[in-house]
Input
Amino acid sequence: MEINVNSKILRINDKVYESSFDEAVECDVTLPDYCPDIKKILKCSVSPRLVSSRCTGDRVNVEANAAVRVIYCGDDNKVFCYEKTVPISKTVDLGEQLENPCVKVRLHAAYANVRALSARKLEVRGSIGFDVAVTAGREENFVCDAENGGIQLLKNCSVAQSFVGETVKNFNLTETVELGDDRAPVLQVLRASSEVFDTEIKAVNNKALLKGVLKINILYVPDDSERRPQIFVHSMPISQIVDLDGASDKTENYYTVSTNGVEVGVKTNALGERRLIDVDAGVIATFRSSQKIEQNLPTDCFSTKYEVDVVTKPVRFENLIERICDKIAVRSTEKINGIKIDEIYDVWCDRVKATASYSKEGILLKGEAIVPILGMDESGVPFYVERNLDFEKTLPAKSEDSGSYEIRCDVNAVEVGFVLGGEDTVELRLDATVCVDVFASDNLKLISSITLDSDSKKPSSSSFTVYFADAGETLWDIARSFNTTVDSIMQENDPSVVSFDGRRMLFVPIV
Output
């Protein structure tokens, strides 16, 4: 017997690979002639920057640079910096070839240690953390309806997010900035960092427009008699148009934006003064578009008349329940034991991380920021210390804890400042932005094909059975067991009850 089967095409985004690992960064350094001898090492850092990530066949190739930076002072107690770039290559095996995959790579400094072998030789040992995720979109045909042959279908009725498209854009913002005449020329750059804020996205006609602001912080040594490090801050507008198939103002559009390192170089102006700073700042933006659909697809099937072969495939629907964006203000008074502070050169945020979970009042955010402090004591000797700033904030949420929601949070430091509170005390302030996304996931097995075996007819009879249903059973379970239909059971019993929370007697007609 032939059955009429109708199918529907769904676009699905599969998570093919996800892993985190560390890669060692090691180098031995001999200071060039223009660098003075090392008296005291203040800070060693390893800053990663993603160069490229591409999928070839069944592998992902990641190219990155690690900027090894050692800040130290010489015999004259002046601050200097030596920097070296170490290239890193990493290959990830996926185990299968993919069509049009989306590769997401996030890098962070895991640790950095330095040992002075002599006044001019250093041994650096560090590590870079890799977070790699690969997704791939595909189209699949699934059964949406079937008739004849006694076919019975269990349909899952819900609102789901149908995948539309996803892409990652790794781009650079470049600009040449000139220091004003009120500042001394640049002798050497000690460090540079960047923060992104005020981002927004607009999607229309298969494109996504990203806007925002990127703030660049540069700590440098001026070329004057004092040579006390100074801070230079510059902001750059972000405006990027990205191709995103299927995206429009009707789709649900989700995005994340993070910094990807910053490189600065100094050159002379027309007067021969080192006042021009070349800025090359990296940004990584991830865009994903989806469409809300009313899906009513079968997840189970049987026939009351014939044996059937049912093929199912696992499908994961991920729905963005809500996005909460807020600001965080962290204030802390820190005592610098054993140091009488004369001047603070710079404070910055080395890394900020947070976790989020449901509480009675909403979503509780807990995190930690590592804040380095570089300054000079009253005897004119530079010092460096780090402080961990803990923070906690409850964010109002529209959703309530279901026990199965996944919460992802992204925290970015926007500004770090300080006020001297005494000879050995500094009041630190950290302003950050946070975006918390709440996702619900439905893992279903949808039917891709139904084949009816007309030669394997089931025996039929007209009778009633008295059955005592147990807690947790549904009418579908009982109908399947007795080779009958849900409708026929409902006709002989209370039609408003489809599942049972306790033992209950039912009349089950056998069709």
